[in-house]
Amino acid sequence: MNIQALAPGLSVSGQIMPDQMVAIREAGFRAIICNRPDGEGGDQPLFAEIERAAQAWGIEPHYLPAESGKVTDQQGAAFGELLASVPKPVLAFCRTGMRSTTMWALSQAGREPLPQIVDAAKKAGFDMKGVMRRIANHGRTPVDVAEVSHAVVIIGGGAAGIATAASLLARQPGLDIAIIDPADVHYYQPGWTLVGCGVFDGAATAHTMASTIPRGVHWIKAAVAAFEPDSNAVILDGCRVVKYEQLVVCPGLKLDWRAIEGLSETLGRNGVTSNYLYHLAPYTWELVRNLRAGRAIFTQPPMPIKCAGAPQKAMYLSADHWKRSGVLDRVKIDFCSAGAVLFGVAAYVPALMEYIDAYGIDLNFGYTLTGVDGPARTATFTRRDPDGSEHVVTRQFDLLHVVPPQVAPDFIRVSPLADAAGWIDVDPATLRHKTWANIHALGDAANTSNAKTAAAARKQAPVVAHNVLAALSNATGRARYDGYGSCPLTVERGKIVLAEFTYGGKLAPSFPAWLIDGTRPSRLAWFLKERILPPLYWKAMLKGREWMARPELADS
Fold first, then answer.
1. Per-residue b or e along 372-386, where b marks 16 or more CB atoms closer than 10 Å to that residue's CB
2. What is the C-alpha to C-alpha distance for residues 379 and 371, in angstroms, rounded to an integer?
3. Helix (H, G, I), strand (E, B) or coil at 7
4. Domain end marker among 116, 136, 156
């Protein structure tokens, strides 16, 4: 928590956590203002958690969210009005503090000289020159003046972005690359399922972003606000401009917690949890260990979602623990899925059904979670029947594992790069944008039909790396992605059904059947998941070592 004084009675910081509230109170703050919308990151607590902690320590909490880089003049005015009405001193926060500072700067425009605003922000560590240019340009950011320019700019420092940068450097050392990402920490998110069952420690899934970005790559620690593809420009939070020759877009997706009524108010307590949040995966394990009898509900929202097998993984591992603890016969397990089938690739369903039967799991298809009442321990679903009719169903629970609906990030959905559904519109084989030839996209935010998994990004990154270099005239031929995705379905502690498939659900096993038969539970696949894949991720995929991932090339 890096708190910076900005103006009399006002300080700003990056994301704060509920357990930091005592330190915030001891620092003298009497009010906080959250300028970050829920769901921007898997390491982000919901505002409701922050609010409860603040109230417990006598701090007045306020929620005034703004999309990253999309702060409007009206939001700036609202910030100024709120700031004038709350007890001082005030701590405003967002992901990095930039949005809060921007809102303050806009609220002061016309009240203070612009140089004085810029100077105050600079002393707090924020560059407001771009915001001032926007004010001087009547609300529009001019893109003819760029702070920096790079040969390749990558949006997103997650698995896809880091792997692409590493693959580019492996092919052309010294290439001028910049990664734009505001996060301080890079997470191995496939490990959170194992945190939620007590196999992994959460801290082992986190590395600093600075240590993860490949050596020689420029790190622009900022959020993207908008794209100007006709000008080869990206506008950042704070209205700064970055130019590029080639752009790679892979920002991940957004967890839409607020799409489920009442969920944000109860998530992390009252038996409601999710392995999709870093700080709640340990709570999942706590709930599973403590449940000795009652009803456990595991939900799955409409597709697309990040790792379609994750909702089931949590369920199987929980059931296995209850079985080993001798209480499975006293726990009623419901799987409530918005989908119509257990798994999208039919070849893996028979093995999964054996565990469904063995654990006594009740399958409920066409069930979409729409509301949660934590204190009452009830979950409300909209059930869609095969004939298209819909009904409201309410069920009691003792444990509720929620997977939220998932959408493309806000700045992607409203950009010219998006298709009608809000995802980045790319060719499914080359991963090149369908309109702008110098833009590629991969990972969760692309509109390709593959499974949204780290394994998919591992195969996509070398394809994009080669095709970007070909566009720069530094490589020949065209690499193609076949839609490969992998989902290690943890059906019990020590066994995995290793689902691997390409576009259209075609099976694509990486190993011969005599070694690992992906359609059957395997102890060797568990060993792969627990012991091999984490170091493969950190030391190979993110280092440009394309083990079993080098793409085939076709003629241009």
1. bbbeebebbbebbee
2. 6
3. strand
4. 136
Contact 368, 338 (CB under 8 A): yes
Angle at 405 between CA 399 and CA 410, to 5 degrees: 140
- CATH label of the domain that carries residue 227: 3.50.50.60
- Cis peptide bond upstream of 8, omega within 30: no
| Backbone phi, psi, residue 117, to 5° | -65, -45
Which residues participate in catalysis according to the annotation? Answer: 307, 487
Tokens of 39: 């769901």
Q: DSSP class of residue 261?
A: B
Residue 143 lies in a domain: no
Number of domain units in the chain? 3
The predicted-structure confidence for 186-214, as pLDDT tens digits, reads as follows: 999 999 999 999 999 999 999 999 999 99
CB-CB contact of 470 with 476 (8 Å): yes
Q: Do residue 166 and residue 261 come from a single domain?
A: no
Q: pTM here?
A: 0.90
Helix axes 98-108, 129-136, angle to 10 degrees: 40
pLDDT digits (tens, 9 = 90+) for 134-159: 776 666 777 777 789 999 999 999 99
How many Å apart are CA 271 and CA 286, to the nearest integer?
10
The answer to whether residues 467 and 549 belong to one domain is yes
Q: List, for residues 420-460, the tens digit of each pLDDT value.
A: 999 999 999 999 999 999 999 999 999 999 999 999 999 99
pLDDT of res. 434: 98
The b-or-e profile of 196-209 (16+ CB within 10 A means b, else e) is bbbbbebeebbeeb
The CATH number that applies at residue 17 is 3.90.190.10
Pick the last residue of a domain from 406, 436, 459: 406
Q: Tell me whether residue 419 is in a domain.
A: yes
Please list the residues that pair with 543 across neighbouring strands.
none
Write out the residue range of the structural domain in which residue 183 sits: 148-253+408-554
Looking at the structure, tell me whether residues 243 and 271 fall in a common domain: no
